[in-house]
Every structure is written in C-alpha cells, then in structure tokens.
Amino acid sequence: MTCQIIGSKKLVEVLKQQAKQKVEEINKKLGIKPSLTILMAGDNPASVSYVTKKIELARECGMNSEIIYLDENNPQEYDKITTELNNNKNINGFMLQLPCPIELKNGFNINTEKDVDCLTETTYKKMLAEDKTSFAPCTPLGILRYLEFLGIEISGTNFAMIGKSRLVGKPLFELLLNKGGTVTLCHSKTKDLAKSISTADVVISAVGKAGLLNKDNIQEGQILIDVGINKVDGKLCGDVAKNVEEKASIISPVPGGIGPLTVMSLITNTIDVCYMQNGLERPEWSVK
After folding, report:
1. Do the Cβ atoms of 93 and 115 come closer than 8 Å?
2. pTM listed for this prediction
3. Could you list the pLDDT tens digit for every one of the 288 residues in the chain?
4. CATH topology classification for 138-259
5. Domain ranges in the chain?
6. Coil, strand, or helix at residue 169?
7. Which of 25, 77, 103, 200 has its CA 20 to 30 A from that of 14?
8. Fold that domain 29-111 belongs to in CATH
C-alpha cells in the first residue's frame, strides 16, 4: 500500500478564492467589508506567528482586520475592550488568541453573533443544537472540510478522536456524531489506545504528543488526521510518527495540513457573520 501525504494547500486556495469573491460581493452591495479583530496577550512566539498569519490572510481576502495587544496583568482592560467590540457595529467578529495568560473572571465576554471561534458556552450550545446561525470552532470546521475534500462520507464511517479539548476534541466528536459518524473518544487516561482505535477508518489526533500514533498502534489502511503541534529538535511536527507511512493510507502533514485550514475557517466564519448581521443569506462554501 502506498501512503499519501495530502496537505491542505489546494483546499485553502479554493476557499480563499471564494472568500475574495464573497468579500467583493458584499462590498458592492452594501459598501462594507467583513471585519475581524484578534485579541492577544503575552509574547508566546507560536501565538504571535499564528495571529500574524490570520491577519495577513484576512487582509489578502479583502477584509478589514487588526490585532489588539492586551496587558496580561490587567484583566479589567480585557473586559473594557470586549464590551467596546461587542457594541461596535463595524466589527463583525472577534476572538481571543489562546493560550491566554489573563485570568478571565467574567469569561470570554463575546456576544454570540460575533463569536467566530465558538469560544463561549452559549455559542457552543447553539452548535450542539445545530442552530443554522451557529459557528463551529475553527479547527473542527477545518477538519470537516478536509474530510469532504478527501471524499470521505462521514455518515457510516468509524472515527477515533484522540483528545478531549473544548476547542477541538469535544466539538469535533459532537459534529461527527450529528453527521452520522460513529465516534470513539480517547484521551490521556485511555488505557489501551491501540485497541480503542483499532476499528476506526479515520483516526484524528489532537493531543500534542510527538510519536503518539506509530506503526505499532495503528491498523493497516487507516486515515490519520494530525492536529498535534510539537517541536522536536527545533522542528515542527505533529502527533504522528514518520514510521506510520508503512501502514496508513492517508496522512495529513504537520505543518501544511489542518493548521492552514483552521486559519481559513476563521476567515469564512467572519464572512458568514458579516452576511447574516447585514440581513443577507449565509453564504455557501465548496471544497471543490
């Protein structure tokens, strides 16, 4: 069996061209551009790099976008700024880049209609209820699009989700279930990982542990979607070991796999928000 390493570059480009068209469309109709604001505290190099990519892509698609840097020692500043953003009609969506060193005593304080990364519990519950105005967190949405791009029918497919984080594992588990998938949820306390994932057609790992998936615990022909982010010997890698190529059928790479789709999903969510806030029908997105 020949293993395919399938990145997201082509899919991101397809979505980017649609985003540009939709931004141009609403600008022509209403004279406005979708607007995204990202709040960031601290100087974590990975976060700085990630936020920069989000801002650059938003602007490349013709959107208005900015970063607001927060004082990590001043939680009152966060509450003040988020209240202003909630009340600013020119800002369609905003998010807080995680991890965040600020102690958020009042939660994320983001209005549901502007919560483009599904950070608040209200938005999350709307997603679970399959509300048509709800938003999926950006990484799970990117993974759903990647599956569609690969031609994988979720209904009837067996999935193993490794990781139960609020931003990836838990929402993706629910989204796959809602679409008819059979899903096994694994995590750090799972005793026999190899057995738990043995019946899966698709294994998704979002743990952040290099080499977690290797040739000794995966099955022949499995599809591996790698959402892990690790640094080994100064190089970026995921949770999937190199030796799995001997057995897997398809692997999403790190870097160049789900990460760029996460960024692209933030852009499409913000455009969706802008359309709906201005009384227009939520646009459709195609992976082809």
Report:
1. yes
2. 0.95
3. 689 999 999 999 999 999 999 999 999 999 999 999 999 998 877 788 889 999 999 999 999 999 999 998 888 999 999 999 999 999 999 999 998 998 888 899 999 999 999 999 999 999 999 999 999 999 999 999 999 999 999 999 999 999 999 999 999 999 999 999 999 999 888 989 999 999 999 999 999 999 999 999 999 999 999 999 998 988 889 999 999 999 999 999 999 999 999 999 999 999 999 999 999 999 999 998
4. Rossmann fold (3.40.50)
5. 29-111, 138-259
6. helix
7. 200
8. Rossmann fold (3.40.50)
